[in-house]
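User: Okay, second chain of the day. Same drill as before: sequence in, structure tokens out.
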Amino acid sequence: MASRGLGGLSGSRGGGSSAKKSLSARNAAVERRNLITVCRFSVKTLIDQSCFETIDDSSPEFNNFAAILEQILSHRLKGQVTWFGYESPRTFWDYIRVACRKVSQNCICSIENMENVSSSRAKGRAWIRVALMEKHLSEYISTALRDSKTTRRFYEDGAIVLGEEANMLAGMLLGLNAIDFSFCLKGEGLDGNFPAVIDYTPYLMYTQSSDSISSDEEELRTLGSSDSEGSTPENVGPPLIVDENSWFNKCKRVKQKYQLTLEQKAYLEELLRLRENQLSESVSQNKILLQRIEDSDLAHKLEKEQLEYIIVELQDQLKSYQSLDQLSAEVSLSQTSLDPSQSQEGDGKQDPLNLINAGKEDTPSLLGLCGSLTSVASYKSLTSLKSNDYLASPTTEMTSPGLTPS
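Assistant: Same drill. Structure tokens below.
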């Protein structure tokens, strides 16, 4: 009996845990569906409201849409684990900053460098506004969802961005590209100290217009569903009212849309004209710059050729100077070898006669004199002078011992 009671207790515990799991899964699924449905209503409300007024920060429809989108992107977002094992909270901007880097001409860097936006939540809200003004919000979301590796790194299982609702989200946001938004990135909507709050009151009393009903039917036809076409209800929403006021209001809305379209067309035409003028000016400036580049290249080539010619001339002159130096050195060596005045004695001293002869110049007068001295007549007169007519020196007379005074 005890064993039976114990088995029944364990069975009840197992059933309770499975019931809790199924309940939590159901709650998560309901939460995801509710957020996606409210986001769909919010997008339609924005599109309908844009026909009558400009959407900016003061519009309650936009503030509600921004809060819904922030809740969707923050659904089951993982925290960041630090080195010490603590988990710090994250915001959806941390995910968008990493996952949307691949978008061409993205605004991530400009938002990071904003001076008046410091917190991560405020940067995320600024990104929503800038993406709507650039008409690229759907492209950002689609690019981020395609990066499944980064998405799974930032979100837990059961998040909206990891489910089938993510594809519906990207399709919903595509309709916002038809709206011209105007935001101030210094307002109170960027305050990151307070979380976004969704106002469900407008959607509890939401009634679709005829245009919205027709667009829903067209969307159901294009997208299709798991059931057959016959199971799709034909009449969605309240029946159409066909009185004069409704037709008048419808004509008024169509007229306003037509005027808005005309204004956008004129703006785009003027913008196109300005861009064409800028393009023509850029083309002309490009031609001028290309001509300048060609002229400068030609001038550089001429300067290079002149410099090369000058270098060749200098090299030739240097070679001639080297040959002249060698020739002068050879001449000096030959002169020193032929000149007897440069010869030295064994003790390292030069002959004084050679030095005297080297200091004298061989003039023709000296040569004539030497020639006269070497002649025979002059030689005979010199010998006779030496033998007979020489003068005695006074020193020899005084020192001679054989001579006595008289």
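The CA atoms of residues 80 and 128 lie 23 Å apart.

User: Thanks, on to the next one.
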